[in-house]
Amino acid sequence: QEPSAIMADGVIAKSGSAPAMVVSLSCQGGSGTVTGLAPSVSGANGIQVQTGTINLSPGESHTLIVNVDTSGSATGTAISVSMPLSGITTSFESVAVTGDTVRAYVASAPTSIQIDGAFGDWIGLTAPDTDATEVKDPNIDISAVGAVNTSASSSFYVSVVGEVCRGSFVPSQLTKPSGSGGGSVTPAKKVGDDILQVYIDTDMSASTGSVVAHPSKTIGADFVIEVRGLDGEIISRSIMEFVSGSWTYVGGTVAAAHDEQQIELSVASSSISMASSIDFIIEMTDWRAWSDIATAVPQGTRGADGLDFGTRAWIVDNTITSPEATSTSSQRKLFYDGTNFWSVYADGPDTVARYSTDGVSWTSVGSVFKTSGVTRTSIWYDSSSSYVYAVGDRSAASVN
Questions:
Q1: Strand 11-12 and strand 32-37: pairing?
Q2: Is 5 helix (H, G, I), strand (E, B) or coil?
Q3: DSSP 255-321
Q4: What angle do CA 259, 65, 10 make, to 5 degrees?
Q5: pLDDT in tens, 85-95
Q6: What is the pLDDT averaged over residues 339-350?
Q7: What is the pLDDT of residues 256-307, one digit of tens each?
């Protein structure tokens, strides 16, 4: 079972017959028939799937589309569709269902993050991860991360190249026969779970907490959220605080949900010292201690005045009263709009702007001002309206 390709963005159409899931029947061993399929659905009114006898021989496969009736579902409703073993009528002796439950939102995703295993609410809020060296285990190879911080909670997103929460069985070690002639002793197999750790800096200071480094930043982690997975399932989740030089388990609930390649998790602000703003680094590790590390800019982080900003924001110096906004403003201005990083700067004769999705490849949009010769510029990004306000001067510094 897997999502229909039409739901690549995690949103399903509002329709009396909306394609939701693809079921691929594959035969191994001997021949047999499938005479009935009864998928399970929630959040929608009904399902439609092909009926009748399907004959399968070894090596053959047959693909079916499962449609659901979402016409009566409210916009933003989370739906889930799956094929339980109990819903399959067949002559085969053994049947296995692979793939995760399909989840999506009707018509459009909610505006706030919901920890429900549907990921349409993360569209535009994640940043891709690139690695300087190859990550050998695709199940811990991070492909994208994201974070949203509100006054009530902090939520995080991670996707991997392989399968999230997959883990592996650690192979038994070979042992030499004992000298007593009793033969070798085979140790019990150990199970290796994949570990997701979200290191959170709640006081925005690298000088306090446990130092965690990423090529693009270093933080002092005050808390860490840990989620362990095995066989495609979450087996544990916990919160730890860095106290007196060591990690200590603390109370609090970690909400988490995932599909085959993505996982989302959230903690209440009360569990992480009611942090007014955060920074974070994410690490994935397997039983061999192979790991991958990633980070991004948190979205919706609260500023000093309690308002929500599209990028992390803080007051640099609230004692300055000079009205000369463009007096010596020659540095590059950087901000993040949820999809692109923007750089506004003086290229010599004019102020120009460029944007980038990854901070590596940049696209120029040319001059900021219609008037030439403006090189001293201040900007303000209004994230709620997606506007950028720019004020500049092409001559001497002024108070205007």
A1: unpaired
A2: helix
A3: EEEE-SSEEEEEEEGGGGTT-SS-EEEEEEE-TT--EEEE--PPBS-B-TTS-B-SS----S-TT--
A4: 35
A5: 999 999 999 99
A6: 86
A7: 999 999 999 999 999 999 987 899 999 999 988 899 999 988 876 433 333 3
